TrEMBL record:
InterPro entries: AAA+_ATPase, ABC_transporter-like_ATP-bd, P-loop_NTPase. Pfam families: ABC_tran. This is ABC-2 type transport system ATP-binding protein. Residues 7-233 form the ABC transporter domain. The keyword Protein transport does not apply. It comes from Actinacidiphila yanglinensis.
Amino acid sequence: MSASHAIEVSGLRRSYGSHTAVRDVSFQVRHGAVTGFLGPNGAGKSTTLRMLVGLTTPDSGQARVLGSDYRALPNPGRHVGVLLDASAQHSGRTGREVLALGAMAMGLPPRRADELLEVVGLDADEARRRTGTYSLGMRQRLGIAHALLGDPRVLVLDEPANGLDPGGIHWLRTLLREFADRGGCVLLSSHLLREVEVIADLLIVIGRGRVVAQGAKQELLAAGGTVVRGSDAGTLAAALAAAGIAATRTGDAFLAQAEPEQVARAAAAGGVVVLELRPAGTDRLESLFLQLTADDSRETVRR
Ligand SMILES: Nc1ncnc2c1ncn2[C@@H]1O[C@H](COP(=O)(O)OP(=O)(O)OP(=O)(O)O)[C@@H](O)[C@H]1O
């Protein structure tokens, strides 16, 4: 395994009866970045993450974290923080007890629980409450605290933004950004394109148990060119042509095959006031994602 990759998954496959949940999934996840694992409901995200941390046995293929089978890591919580199901905690324990027990299991002092409660914004009152009374957002915060307890280098989080309000999503984004900027590796799943788009640097898109796209978010988003609309369509067309930028007209806008900055400069050089400028790739990724969702025929009305 390459030392630059924290996670390496190759040829993973898992069936349940006649249904293949994950078929030939391969990807690598590097340090120092937040990687989003994106796919519609039932695409195979949780099954893949469960195989990664040894909770589900693959029919074939292998998954390695920090160069090892997860189950072979000594004291794994000190290396890999995992949050697969925020509701899995014992509902009769208080938030603080959950963290204190986790700290003890990892050989850490109980004060580590208090540090993490502060990091995830659970106050003293909330920490004393049984987790059975927690909202989903509070459970997610507790689950993230548990994943961070052992100061791991890798985080594997299944739908961590589920149940968080917009402020909570902003908080999560900042937390994961800082973790990755310190060199950590984050792999997080989501079934919401917009959610993962604001949090992740890299994307792995999965549909029907297969990886259908992967790469840097900016590249995936930029691949479709730039949508531009100007004060005068004729002058804008001429300005783009003069700059050697191929463009096709869609209504009163153009789809230009160049980066937004090049397009803006071309428009400025032609004296056109730009009224709209955005990467078209967002649309492309969205249509790929909607197509995946539609392929699952969950949204299709059968006649
Ligand atoms: N233990 C199981 N027994 C039978 N089928 C299962 C089991 N676990 C997963 N599956 C099936 O495998 C497929 C993939 O499920 P998985 O939970 O991995 O998807 P997901 O991408 O995480 O979906 P979601 O976004 O809805 O959580 C689904 O069709 C699911 O019903």
